[in-house]
Specification:
The structure is a homodimer.
Chain A (H helix, E strand, L loop, with lengths): L1 H14 L6 H11 L6 H12 L4 H22 L9 E2 L2 E2 L1 H5 L1 H22 L5 H15 L4 H12 L7 H27 L4 H28 L2 H4 L5 H4 L5 H5 L1 H19 L5 H15 L1
Antiparallel strand pairs in A: 1-2
Chain lengths: 288, 288
């Protein structure tokens, strides 16, 4: 896991130049290079690897997924959205570079990511690249990530078009699970996996994404600032729609365990240390 | 020309669905469907046509270029950028849908555009699609359109890294010419043109883009609100770096004529009514 994160960080640094006009490239690189778990690119690389693909082939795509993730963080932090002054323990992008540059840095990451896939994926066929970018644009846009963010904002304003349960499912699937799905799907496509295998990983990522979001909701409820390194209890204070607020803490833990166990079952046959490590970490923290 | 605009408007309407969550699709479609000259998609289609390509083949890409253009308008109008309340005579996107949705609508157009190219370009090869999306991401991102916008904002704040002349050239090339270049290049790629032909159209679009920007600068200087339908003299009042402010009105007109005449020369052999109509319109208004 540490080794993969190191490879990802080095690649992100290498792929992202600082050229004229430097301000925009610096803004893009600033949030991109903040230390993170790199969970999405790790899962992309590991999926490709256990399906028999050299991870070098899929490294540009894995980094592109992290760029998409970081883009959504930069825009989410803006004053007119979540208005967060900090990200990963550092001042958020607009606090350092100003709002205009933060918006443009997000836009630039959104276009740079597919550009990177095209320019650096020398070992993938044109058909594979088209499929990867198709997934990338679908899952990263109004049919995925952005839809999740829009419904999340609407629900915070108390405006629900669907029932609270359906709305919460939609937000979890589109705001959280969607990038894990994208990660494993791209890994599978790069490995030349057939549709049934790709779908199996997709189901895994969907369950993992939901578990990950419920984990986040539980942690916000039960942890202290010291434990998480960020303000907790924020969801409750703002009356936010979460798994815990809707179903209660015990039910949330039950659902989390059920989903995580499904994840172990699906991934079992691949003997993946990395995936087991990721699942173990989440499970241990909820149980402790 | 009118016929092409009609086809483009109908296609944009057809390509852009309104589905759940409707707010984001409505926001995307709102600015997209405001009446415009559709100059960039028109030039894309016409380039493809005169190079022997059925325009149906390139229609999704032409519409994607308009989406990229509209995305940049939505984000440019935001309070932290140009702070414009009106666009094409109507309230700007954030005035209707709020800032958060306007930012997300722009993001969504940036991802929807390549998605559209992939899903609807059934008559193009995977290699052509990869080349088209590569141009799209390069010209639309930090190596093109966004770089132009960043330097434009910097120059308005009086922060110049290069000389005023170089800075102005950079802004004109990247903020204005870049999407005309993208339009003709994609038209040429769809038509299967060789590099020398693609480059010829590229040179045309570069000259046209510069002429178009100088035209805009001149019009801002000499027209009344009634003639243009928007506030004029804004550039001068704000001390903005323009061709007119840097070189004077006469020199600007000279440069404009020189560039437009070059454009006529390059395009002459194709006997294109559409390109001649576009050039004639600009030329007549400057001369009158």
């Amino acid at each position: 896991m540490k080794n993969l994160i190191k490879i990802i960080n080095e690649s992100l640094d290498e792929y992202m130049p600082i050229i004229y006009p430097e301000e925009i490239f610096k803004a893009m690189k600033y949030t991109l290079m903040l230390p993170g778990k790199r969970l999405r690119p790790v899962m992309c690389l590991e999926t490709a690897r256990i399906l028999g693909c050299d991870i070098k082939k899929v490294l540009p795509s894995a980094c592109a997924i992290e760029m998409l993730h970081v883009q959504s963080l930069i825009h989410d932090d803006l004053p007119c959205m979540d208005n967060d002054d900090f990200r990963r323990g550092k001042p958020s992008n607009h606090k350092v570079f100003g709002e205009a540059n933060a918006i443009l840095a997000g836009d630039a990451l959104l276009t740079f990511a597919p550009q990177l896939i095209i320019e650096k994926s020398t070992d993938l066929s044109a058909t594979q690249i088209v499929r990867i970018i198709h997934e990338f644009t679908k899952f990263g846009g109004a049919y995925g990530l952005i839809a999740g963010q829009v419904v999340d904002i609407e629900s915070e304003g108390g405006k629900l078009v669907k029932s609270p349960e359906e709305t919460l499912d939609f937000i979890h699937l589109n705001k959280t699970a969607v990038l894990f799905r994208l990660a494993v799907r791209i890994g599978a496509i790069a490995a030349g996996a057939d549709d049934s295998v790709t779908n199996e990983f997709d189901v895994f990522a969907k369950k993992f994404g939901l578990a990950f979001q419920i984990y986040d909701d539980i942690m916000d409820e039960i942890s202290s600032f010291e434990e998480l390194g960020k303000t907790t209890g924020k969801d409750k204070a703002s009356g936010k729609l979460t798994y815990v607020s809707l179903y209660g803490l015990e039910s949330a833990k039950k659902k989390f365990n059920y989903l995580i166990n499904d994840c172990y079952d699906i991934i079992d046959k691949y003997n993946s240390e990395i995936f087991n490590e990721i699942l173990d970490k989440l499970k241990t923290r909820i149980e402790s």
